[in-house]
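Posting for a labmate who doesn't have an account.
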Amino acid sequence: MRIEQMFKDDINRTINGVVQVEQETERVLIQELDEYVVTKELKKHFITLFNKYSDAFDSKTNDIGVWISGFFGSGKSHFLKILSYILENKEVQGIKTVERFRSKFEDDPATFMLIDKATKGETDTILFNIDIEGSINKDATAVLRVFAKMFYNHLGFYGEDLKVAKLEQFIAKQGKTEEFRKTFEEINGDTWLNTRESFAFFEDDVVETLKRVLGMSEEAARNWFNGTETVETSIAQLVSEIRDYVNSKPDNYRLLFMIDEVGQYVGDNRDHLLNLQSLVEDIGNKCEGKVWVMCTGQEALDEIIKTRQDEFSRIRARFKTTLSLSSTSADEVIQKRILSKTPEADKELQKVYEEKASVLSNLLKFNRDDALQDIRGYESPQEFSRDFPFVPYQFLLLQKVFNEIRKHGNAGKHQSGGERSMLSGFQEAAQKLKEKDENAIAPFYLFYDTVHGFLDGAIRRVIERCQTAADEDRGIKQQDVAVLKLLYLIRYVDSDIKSTLDAIVILMTDNINLDKIKMREQVRESLDRLLSQNYIGRNGNTYNFLTDEEQDIARDIKDTSVDTAQIIERIGHLVFGEIYDKKKYRYQIYDFPYDQYVDGTAIGSVTGGMKLQIYSIATDDYEKQDLRLQTNSKGQAIVVLGDGKYYECIENALKIRKYVKTRNISQLPKSVQDIIRTQQDEATKYENDALDYIKRAIESAEFYVDSEHIDIKGGDAKSKLDQALEYLVTHVYYDLDLIGENANDDSDIVTILTQMQSYTPGTHPNSGAAQKIEEYLEMQDMKHITTKMSDIQSRYQAIPSGWREIDIAAVVALLIYEQKVTIKYGGMTIQPNDPKLPDMLRKKSEVGKTEITKRHVVSPTKMKEAREFLRDFLDVMDVPADEDGLIAFIIEKFTDLEEHYDSLNKKYEGRKYPDQKLVWDAVRLVKDVLSQKSDNIALIDKVVNSEDALYTMQDKLKNIESFFKTQVALFDSAANFVESIKNDLDYIDSDEEAKHALNQMRLITNIFDGKTYDYSRIPELNELQSTVEKSHNAMLEEKRETLYEVVRSCLEEIHKNAMVNEKTKAISDKADSFYTQKKEQIAAEKSLALLDGVSVPMWSYKDQATMAIEAAMAPQVEEKPPVKGSDEAESPKKVIIKKVARQQMFPAKVLKTDDEIDAYVENIRKQMKQYLQGSDGIQITN
């Protein structure tokens, strides 16, 4: 059966692939209405829209915006137009539009009733494509001007020119429209409607008409006609006119602005979006549901405003009703309008599928790596019959192809009239196959012709040039053109389907009985021919269409040269940076560094240890001969990579990178910039593919390790390299097993050094390793070569040992413990118990400063002599017999002595004690012994040679040791007491016994340099101090009693008149407080000299207090005012008081007889009388 005969409707009938909103012929209208398919999705949209629309008849609303979105070719324009037909409900050939839809809602009468209700009132629709009706110059008010134009056109005015439209509007308001038109026709000879679009050429006719109809003067009419001012309108003015218009109609009247391609027109232009927002908002607020605005756009409203969410949140609120058309709706329309089959054809096709289901499955099954899961073939007989001759994947894929072509390849992206829809695409492809039979399948390239006409010239030229080359047989065949068309179609949908050879074969499939193997070879040959002539490019296993500019750039890239060294370096980065990024190979607990090479070139730093060499296809075949590889692999692992496209991929990637660097991209045209960016993406893909190819090349590689051609077991690339290095380690590091016990941290080293782990010499698990190091040190000693610990570390970490640095340190610790080596640091011999020794054996900053030598043994005779002396000198029995133990013992004990004598010496600070020089001498002697601790032999000699000096020192220090243990407290007490009474020596002199005792104490506690001190007299200090204290205390008590009597005398004098009045009482109370403090001071004071100074202030305070009381007791004399009229007021008489110091009046003197007393007093009396002469009183002061 021919395909043409299978369809229920004529496949050759005229169907408008893209419904243009301005199409209005009756034939087109009837076909559109009758063939319109109401899909399940559309039915939901009808319900949503008409529910909202119907509610506006019952209550006022400002939510009058409707936004219809859908992908390119989804039928949104058609849906908008059908809505305009339904809502306007015109009668066509005697049938109302709504009635034509009754059958389409047979299964949903409720929805039809909703639609029927909404169309009962009078409705006018203003349906237009804003891209077509809008002006070329789109300024900020472009949307407003299009609305105004279409509204005035609807009213019958000339909306194209607002000046003319406003004139017509004014004439209409005067009710003179018919008169104006008739008069103009009489004057001009042609109708106004035919002439108004070019009215500027008929000035005289228009002026004369205005004079006759409106009564304007000729001057006024010509001024209007020739006025250059631009007639503008505002949103508020236009909306007010629209409101006035709809309010002049019945209450159930509705006016609908139905605008196609608004999304494309406004785009992301801020001014246009805000203009649309303000217009819809004002219409909603002022017209209250009588005027609606319905718009279409290829993007949802949220996508249009997504970059300015904060600024355009209000526009979303203006379009609360949003309808989105998906691909399923388009698929259903195509299947019903184009592909619907006759019963006979349906039966025949289902039979074909049942017979060839397995063939079809194999023929149309994509690799999962090549296509998304929903890019698929047939799954049932019903699906095969429904979609035939097309394949299910084509519906989804073509939709995405159209979307991407609109973005990338459309010559007029905003010109809807030039676009073709999916509907026309499937019809035209079916028409091309109409002569085929039931075994035919539509290859995907057939859809190219649908879009060819509106593609960019650069794209069309490539296809046309290829077609010409095929027609003229210039290295291109007709199938090559089909492949090229296909590659263009899927150029921008690589996220859905990859243009691999296998995928291309499936997309090119045109018959069920196709020989897929033969077809694959034919397609491969086509791709090779297209590649050779730069029509297409290749990235790994994918192929891509190239425009003219892309072909030029591709040729330039191809001609760009890249050094082999750069490719090798990149291979090294991929192998050692991505696939096998270990810098060290771990074997058991060991981490072995290895040098990385590719084709003889080092990758990264070189350590001189193991080597892992990668041979790529860049290495000469001579170097890859088996015998040569075995020879060259001594001490290293060589990996000869298997074949693969890794080298070509890396070379292509590097060529692109190099080419891009030579171009000043920012200065190039945008189209070239886009191509270069695409090439950069291609370079990244090449690099990713190269990584995969290298992995496979390692998996299939030949391995040569330490002069052997070995067979590596299965596994991935990383696993195989691991196995090669493991084999290399076991053959290169043959002394590795000498380490029988591994150390974990410094504590294990300390355990060995401190003998915490006992064992018989030579039986330790690491004794073999220790012997290796000992032999090396013996050899170094024979050569008189200084050996550092850093030398040991580097030697035994390298081949053939490979020991860890901590294990090497542990082996050296074992040699130290067995007293076979000597460690020196800074010229000093380090003892095993030194806490810093582990750092000296391990730490990088220390090993270069640490010297290790074969030990030279101390003389046994000297050892014995030193031990015997130390037993006696230190009074100990247990002195170590081994050299290290004895040295450590000497250092420990003499360090203790040094610290002890230092502490004794510090006790002399701030105090004069006897024999400090002896302590200084002891410190110097001990330090002298310890100065030899860096050399075991020298230290033993020093101890032996210093025996006499040490014994002498010990004897001389016995008194000092005893003094600080038992006598220093008594000595300090006596010395402190002598110091405390130094101000009272004159008083002590009056007591001969106390005076003698104090002098003896001073003799004992005073230390004189160079004089032998008599320690035996220190015990006398107790009795001597007691004698002096007893006498001194008696004197203190006598002095205190005298002062207490002064206190009593002073208070008695003050208290005499204390209670006269409040002031005298206050003075008395203050005096009581003062003398109480003085009594406390007297009781506490321990110095006679200081007590002598207490009496004077007390007498002085008494005098001041009594004078204050006398003043408080004196009567208050009121001052009399001066007598009026007197020349002068009497001044009060001034009282003269002379002040005399107490010390002057009462000089200090010892009085022994009555006569001396009388004479002393008489002298005072005479002086007082002399001072009183010529004064009113005497004041004795301190």
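Reply:
Got it, the structure tokens are right above this. The chain has 54 helices and 21 strands.
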